[in-house]
Design a protein that fits this description.
Length: 332
């Protein structure tokens, strides 16, 4: 008998796309599925759509919880899965009918703990042949790509052996996938990635994967993740450390461009971690050939704990955004 695959779908304000998503899952050619829908405090008709599907398909388990973010919804579902394998699909996306069967075949035939496929969207719609080449990686080979972010760190379009999540859960942050993937990979032995485009990704501004541009949480989370990866890489993939350092500095400075009195208090812990990292690795940062002169100057201000240039940048950000929008509107 084929192994049970748990399909986790966090749901948040995706009524316009949810039926397409769920239809693509229930109509998979691979039938032995456990479909877990977690309504994360939606304010639209998403819960009603989920209930209607659950009434028609006994494989669907529907839960509702207070809004806690995508990481919270995924962790809620992970605590309830029973499948040997698990995959994550966002509620505003959809998958081709052979998505589960193909990822399962790759896992079975290659004894792989993680398998994945290519993705596509409205801007890059794929037609024609869906049979793509595949690449088999050892854990170490894939780590050399994943840790410096040379390959995407998101968990959509992937199938995981459920045992990888034993004792591991998503961190409560904006880019939770980047935070968890290295730890899952460390528990794996083999990764297989197919070039077949089987996962359709949609950018929904109201959906679970949308992030805000009104605060530093996005770049700050990325900076803190690359700071964590810099430490991980030292004993795992040391050759990737210069690239990771560059990205930690880039996102750290980006987070500081939001620095003002309100954000300094609200995100004080994150700013302190970034500043401490810059101080600790001052020599590496200032001597890195991968970091340009302008960012080295910005890094010096952070190292010296001089925030005033960033306060100025933060204060003019709204005006700059209006100017950019006006220019873009005139061009269109």
């Amino acid at each position: 008998m084929e192994d049970l695959i748990s399909v986790i779908v966090p749901v948040y304000n995706s009524q316009n796309f949810l039926e397409e998503c769920l239809n693509s899952i229930v109509n998979q050619t691979y039938k032995n599925l456990e479909i877990i829908l977690v309504n994360d405090g939606s304010k639209d008709q998403s819960p009603e759509i989920c209930k209607a599907f659950a009434e028609k398909d006994s494989r669907i388990k529907f839960f509702s919880k207070e809004n806690g973010g995508q990481a919270s919804a995924r962790n809620f579902a992970l605590d309830r899965i029973t499948g040997r394998y698990v995959t994550f699909i966002d509620s505003d996306d959809w998958v081709r009918e052979n998505y589960c069967s193909e990822l399962y075949r790759l896992a079975r035939d290659n004894n792989a703990d993680i398998t994945g496929c290519n993705e596509f969207n409205d801007e890059a719609r794929v037609v024609g042949n869906l049979e793509g080449a595949m690449t088999v990686y050892s854990m170490q080979e894939y780590a050399e790509l994943l840790i410096p972010d040379e390959v995407p760190s998101h968990l959509i379009s992937k199938l995981f052996n459920s045992n990888l999540f034993n004792g591991i859960r998503f961190p409560d942050r904006v880019v939770e996938d980047m935070g968890i993937f290295p730890f899952l990979l460390k528990c794996a032995e083999c990764v297989v990635i197919s070039e077949s485009p089987l996962y359709f990704y949609r950018c929904n501004p109201n959906g679970v994967s949308a992030t805000t541009d009104k605060n530093p949480s996005g770049p700050m989370d990325r900076a803190l993740i690359f700071i964590e990866r810099y430490t991980l890489a030292a004993d795992w993939v040391p050759d990737t450390m210069p690239v990771i350092l560059k990205k930690a500095v880039w996102f750290g400075i980006s987070a500081y461009t939001w620095f003002n009195r309100e954000n300094a208090e609200k995100y004080s812990e994150g700013y302190e971690k970034i500043q401490k990292f810059f101080v600790t690795h001052e020599q590496e940062i200032l001597s890195s050939p991968l970091i340009d002169r302008a960012r080295k100057i910005a890094a010096k201000f952070i190292i010296k704990n001089h925030a005033w240039p960033f306060v100025i940048i933060s204060s003019i950000r709204p005006a700059m955004k209006k100017i950019i929008n006006l220019i873009q509107n005139k061009r269109s």
